[in-house]
Amino acid sequence: MAKQEIKQNKGLVIVIASIAATGGLLFGFDTGVISGAIPFLQDYFELTDSQVENITALGLIGAVVGALVTGTLTDYLGRRKVILASAFVFATGAVWTGLAPTVPQLMISRFYLGLAIGVSSFAVPLYISEISPTKIRGTLVSMFQLLITVGILAAYLSDRALADNSNPESWRPMLWVGVFPALILFVGMFFLPETPRWLMSKGKEDESRRILKKIEFPEFIDKSISDMKEQIALEAMQAGWREIFKPWLRNALIIAMGIMFFQQFVGINTVIYYSPKIFLAAGFVGNEAAIAASVIVGVVNVLFTIVSLFIIDRLGRRKLYFIGVSGIAVALISMGLGFMIEGASKWFLVGSMLVYIAFFAISLGPLGWLIITEVFPTRVRGLGSSIGSLSNWGFNTLVVWTFFKMASAIGNAKDVVVPEGSDLSTECPTCVGSVFWIFAAVALIGLVWGYFYIPETKNVSLEEIEAHWRDGKKPRDLKAQ
Ligand code: BGC
Q1: Region 363-371: what's the mean pLDDT?
Q2: What is the pLDDT of residues 225-248, one digit of tens each?
Q3: Considering the domain 241-481 in this protein, what is its CATH number?
Q4: Using an 8 Å Cβ cutoff, are 372 and 125 in contact?
Q5: Roughly what angle, to the nearest 10 degrees, separates helices 287-315 and 268-281?
Q6: Distance CA 280, CA 291 (A)
Q7: CA of residue 366 to ligand 1 center, whole Å
Q8: Which fold has domain 1-192?
Q9: Domains 1-192 and 241-481 share a fold
Q10: 363 lines ligand 1 (CB under 6 A)
């Protein structure tokens, strides 16, 4: 009987997490979808490159603002209501961007949609981590990452399917497709409960216990309740913003911002957003071949994220981080070489890029989003993980904005002349290659940083993690008792 109960509990938690993780799918879809829509938008509205940049960037800036303003909201309103609101914005934003009659409307609607991306990028993992039993928390939170990668792949595939050269308005249906996952999230979330932790922090113990009974392993329920009570009593005297910058939480803050720094500065989104362009530079001929190669990148990303689901709670965070970041560094060096060595086979570059994506997908991808939900105490967890996602979006914007600028600065230093109508990646592949070496250097620094700062949170309860910081102990000394 007890065994059956445990099974039922686990099943329910997986259902809850799957629906909530649809937020991740939307995040991936809505960031990925723009890459295929851009060529059509550009023709339809006769956009200049800088307008294209503005539209893309406004989505990212929306995400930054979303992560910023709703950080405290999850602590006041609860996790569930905020996710419901983001689903509403996702759905209406998808309709609006697809309908946009003018460029300014397109920009504003992309910004609006970006808000939902930013909100869901922290509210969803936060929700999942608080509603999961300790033992399978890592696996469930990584489902969020899985859905991000599925969303990116879905966007690549749906862009490819809907791209119709004879229809200049192809971008509209591409953007509308996002309505479907938004509706699933909205309807699903409508029936899901609030997290027990948030309810406890609002003094609603009965309700919290009722939900805990459905999700936690029976033998852990009383312990969870008493742990939460103890923690809330400790936190009663503290205030969010003031608290989070206090010395005892400094390491948590460094970890959350640091992991997002390395996640973005190893250049992941230059590959995700610009891979067709990179493949063209590597010698693929024609957009279709380049886009097909990108779809392979999308598939490998999904497959290895699935692998990470199985190993994240077994191998632990630190091992996975070191294996992943070392692999990323080697793959980046070899991607650089692919551009540097004249006559290198284009398959060498594709191979290196796939290895790069695989290592990212088992490490920095899921670890970033998992760790920012684990390192902060309940009362500031909403705020803390929003600072984490804010850093993610801020660093993402920076890297994506500077990738070609960096390559072109290297080109300038080498006196490369780019004739009108061609672009730098084909005129100076070694310039692009050098940027990958810069990312490789970042990955190597990341290994040293990780040695000092990546905590082993495997099998450690959120309460124990908090106690570790209160005792002033080092991140690398954390482990299960
Ligand atoms: C990152 C995104 C990235 C994606 C790729 C996520 O963890 O935060 O910026 O596009 O992984 O799979």
Answers
A1: 92
A2: 888 887 777 666 555 677 788 888
A3: 1.20.1250.20
A4: yes
A5: 150
A6: 9
A7: 8
A8: Growth Hormone; Chain: A; (1.20.1250)
A9: yes
A10: no
State the Cα–Cα distance between residues 425 and 422, nearest whole angstrom. 9
Interatomic CA distance for residues 318 and 344, integer angstroms:
35
| Token pair in block for residue 348 | 């060498």
Residue 190, token pair as written in the block: 């409508």
What is residue 474's three-state secondary structure?
coil
Do 129 and 374 touch, CB atoms closer than 8 A?
yes
Q: For a pLDDT cut of 70, what percent of the chain falls above it?
A: 92
Q: Could you tell me the pLDDT band of residue 1, with boundaries at 50, 70 and 90?
A: very low
Stated pTM of the model: 0.81
422 three-class SS = coil
Nearest CA to ligand 1 atom 7: 365
Residue 52's pLDDT band, with cuts at 50, 70 and 90, is confident
| Beta-sheet strands, E only, within 300-421 | none
| Residue 170 CB less than 6 A away from ligand 1 | no
Taking each helix axis as running N to C, give the angle between helix 137-162 and helix 364-374, from 0 to 180 degrees, rounded to the nearest 10: 130
Q: Tens digits of per-residue pLDDT, 160-190?
A: 888 887 888 989 999 999 999 899 889 988 8
State if residue 149 touches ligand 1 by the CB under 6 angstroms criterion: yes
Q: How far apart (Å, rounded) are the C-alpha atoms in residues 239 and 70?
A: 17
Tell me what pLDDT residue 281 has. 72
Provide the 8-state DSSP code for 102: S
Closest atom of ligand 1 to 269 CA is 10
- The tokens for 337 are 């070489």
**Dihedral angle over CA of 120, 18, 454, 457, nearest 10:** 130
Q: How many angstroms separate the CA atoms of 269 and 328, rounded?
A: 14
Residue boundaries of the structural domains of the chain: 1-192, 241-481
